[in-house]
Design a protein that fits this description.
The protein folds into two domains: about 70 residues; about 60 residues, no CATH class. Helix content is about 55%, strand content about 15%. The N terminus is likely disordered. It is rod-shaped and about 75 Å long. By secondary structure, it is an alpha+beta fold. Helix 2 packs antiparallel against helix 3 and helix 3 packs parallel to helix 4. The longest helix has about 35 residues.
């Protein structure tokens, strides 16, 4: 694994999506508990559906956090390990985000050059002030 995971915090990917998964899961668990099972002699099987959907939402949120904090470093290292690096390559990372892949590739270069391009968004990139290009340069160091 990469030493970088202990030094640099790239934040959580799509925190709004994670929040929504967790809130939806909690709401569905509450619904599963309080939705009537029988109304005017008609039995509804909504509780099992709500419970299983809630478990899926909560599991998705938890797995997204785990991936953001730990597994994406292993994934990056595995992807970069598939390339036979000479050290003089020119690397272009389009949609670089906070630069996780770009910085990993740049560390494989001796005389090559790594360039990252991205449209910065404060909504999906809540890294330590990663909404500005200077933040990727700080993460690099």
């Amino acid at each position: 694994m990469s030493k970088e995971k202990h030094k640099v915090d790239y934040g959580v990917d799509a925190p709004g999506v994670i929040r929504n998964f967790l809130l939806a899961g909690i709401a569905l668990l509450v619904l599963a508990r309080f939705v009537p099972v029988t109304v005017r002699g008609v039995t509804f099987l909504l509780s099992p559906m709500f419970r299983s959907t809630a478990i899926g939402c909560i599991a998705s949120g938890v797995l997204m956090v785990l991936y953001s904090k730990f597994m994406k470093f292993r994934h990056r290292d595995n992807m970069l390990g598939m390339v036979n690096w000479r050290g003089d390559e020119r690397v272009l990372d389009v949609g670089t985000g906070a630069g996780l892949l770009l910085i990993g590739a740049a560390k494989k270069l001796n005389t090559g050059k790594a360039t990252g391009v991205d449209v910065w968004s404060t909504v999906d990139l809540r890294v330590t002030q990663a909404s500005e290009p200077r933040a990727t340069q700080r993460l690099r160091e």
